[in-house]
Specification:
mainly beta; Immunoglobulin-like; about 550 residues; Pectate Lyase C-like; 3 helices
């Protein structure tokens, strides 16, 4: 059974189940192969009439080698160029490896459309240290395609030069359906369908789950970099993406990728979360200094119970944070994000039919939204934060809204209520603090406004429109390595209905009580975001120190 999500985020315990190498820290994986152990039968392709650099089509001989797998085989490619004209089919318990990174190149020379490598209904396949070169041949429809398979490990592989313009792709790596418990690590994907509306580095699709995408370099793609749909429990971390053409979707979780983690990636444009509850988006850097403008930095669509923390969006986007679409968008925690230099707005919250409610924005920076830029997508640009209808019980606390080309905050559209602003710093904006009506039942208290074109703040509101909550924790009964957390309201007038927990690792947890095994370094910062039975939010933090944990993990 695949490990818990908390373990999977570290990559270590996944490997513990399948590796033939010692466990090492994630940062030390640079040249450690992470795939499952393959039984020690070996084939050197040059011993089977597959000769590199001879300019001949090696497909038939290569497929004969791939078919000659009995209980598991390591197939090694010495350095050189191997040409092939049709898809190569890979079977279970096989390892494909070059004798050195980048030394063996499999070059596609096909005259009919097909993918390069195909994996169907297979398990435990490792691919290491190979280059798959489509050679700008438009008949290369995909790179590595896998379906209904598990435990695939693709590491230190380069896929490049896909020029197809038609069809669904090309993708350098396509998990087309039901690929589970697999890893794509340290790969380079470049020049992938730049002129295709669907060209992408990789796509994880249709019931695939428990997959990890770690420390890959993706550059020069058509639609985007890492596109995922209908695939839960993903871990996407430390990838670098650039040169996104077309839509410019750097990382997309679309149509149902719940309980996923997207952390520490660097991308030029557009990290999107759609219909993917209990997802964590942490410490990603999004920006493009080349002058290319795409739609969005961080996007939240029709999702609930997500956290977006410590991300940076700096330039190259129409909108820094975009919240939109027709479904409910509820209980989202936005903390310590820096959003700056967007062409239209630094943030827009657009409730639409399903509404946006219960979002908590805490200690974020919204600065430098541009005014009258010729590339702006919509008129009325230049605001730090914009509410565009059907937004309720939104809490803004301890944020900085500064230096925006128009005003700090704009409200427009109908059905705005319970907009709460506490202890925010609003400075040096070229327009007023607030443009538009504060909505029904507004709450403003303790905010400061200086250096704006108009420093007028809505009148301070009585403290009754806010309340406090607190966190307690103790070792879980029967499991001293695990901590049991409880969130309670400090005030009898507010009964808690829902709580979202952020531990800085793992997916967000839900419930007034929850358990967490502290794998991350101490001290462990724990945040609880609570909503009472009227939907009014409150937030609290606590810190777990090493000495508080009776038996910390080794």
């Amino acid at each position: 059974m695949f490990p818990t999500r908390a373990v999977r985020t570290s990559l270590l315990c996944l490997l513990a189940l399948y590796l033939a190498v010692p466990l090492v820290a994630h940062a030390e994986l640079q040249r450690v192969r992470v795939g499952g152990g393959i039984p020690p039968a070996h084939i050197l392709v040059t011993d089977r009439a597959v000769i590199p650099d001879d300019g001949k089509d090696d497909r038939a001989a290569l497929q004969a080698v791939l078919d000659d797998v009995h209980g598991g085989t390591v197939i090694t490619f010495p350095t050189g160029i191997y040409e092939f004209s049709r898809t190569l089919h890979v079977h279970s318990n096989t390892e494909l490896t070059g004798d050195e990174k980048g030394g063996a190149v499999l070059r596609f020379v096909g005259a009919a459309p097909c993918p390069l490598l195909d994996i169907q209904n297979e398990t435990r396949i490792n691919v290491y240290d190979l280059t798959l070169d489509a050679a700008m041949n438009p008949n290369a429809t995909q790179g590595i395609v896998a379906s209904r398979s598990s435990h695939l490990f693709i590491q230190d592989v380069t896929l490049r030069n896909f020029s197809a313009k038609e069809g669904f792709g090309p993708h350098a790596i396509l998990f087309s359906e039901q690929v589970t418990d697999s890893v794509i690590l340290h790969c380079t994907l470049e020049n992938i369908g730049v002129d295709s509306p669907w060209g992408a580095g990789m796509r994880i699709s249709k019931g695939s789950s428990g997959n990890q995408i770690v420390e890959n370099t993706i550059r020069n793609t058509g639609r985007g970099g890492i596109l995922c749909n209908e695939s839960p429990e993903l871990s996407i971390s430390k990838n670098v993406l650039s040169g996104s053409h077309g839509e410019g979707l750097g990382i997309e979780l679309w149509g149902g990728c719940p309980k996923s983690i997207v952390e520490d990636n660097t991308l030029d444009h557009w990290l999107s979360v759609d219909k993917s509850p209990q997802t964590a988006i942490r410490r990603n850097k999004i920006g493009d200094a080349t002058g290319t403008i795409k739609a969005i930095g961080l996007e939240l669509v029709d999702s609930s119970d997500c956290v977006f923390t410590d991300n940076v969006v700096d330039g190259g986007q129409q909108i820094g944070i975009s919240i939109s679409n027709t479904g409910p968008k509820e209980r989202i925690y936005w903390a310590r994000n820096t959003i700056r230099n967007c062409v239209t707005w630094n943030a827009q919250i657009q409730g639409e039919a399903g509404g946006a409610s219960g979002h908590v924005f805490r200690q974020n920076t919204f600065e430098g939204a541009l005014l009258n830029d010729p590339k702006a997508q919509y008129p009325g640009q230049g605001y730090g934060v914009r509410f565009n209808g059907n937004c309720h019980n939104m809490l803004f606390i301890e944020n900085s809204i500064a230096g925006n080309g128009h005003g700090a905050i704009q409200t427009c559209g109908e059905h705005l209520s319970g907009l709460r602003f506490f202890r925010n710093s609003i400075t040096e904006n070229k327009g007023p603090v607030l443009t538009g009506d504060p909505g029904m039942n507004p709450c403003w208290s303790g905010n400061t406004a200086t250096g704006n074109a108009d420093n007028t703040l809505p009148a301070d509101t009585q403290a009754s429109c806010k309340y406090t909550v607190s966190i307690t924790y103790q070792p879980k009964d029967g499991d001293p390595d695990c901590l049991h957390f409880t969130c309670k309201s400090d005030e009898a007038a507010h009964t808690l209905k829902q709580v979202l927990w952020d531990f800085g690792a793992d997916i967000p947890h839900t419930g007034t009580e929850t358990d967490f095994r502290p794998w991350s370094n101490f001290p462990l910062r724990v945040t609880a975001i609570a909503w009472d039975d009227s939907g009014i939010p409150a937030v609290a933090d606590t810190e777990v120190r090493l000495r508080d944990n009776p038996k910390p993990p080794i």
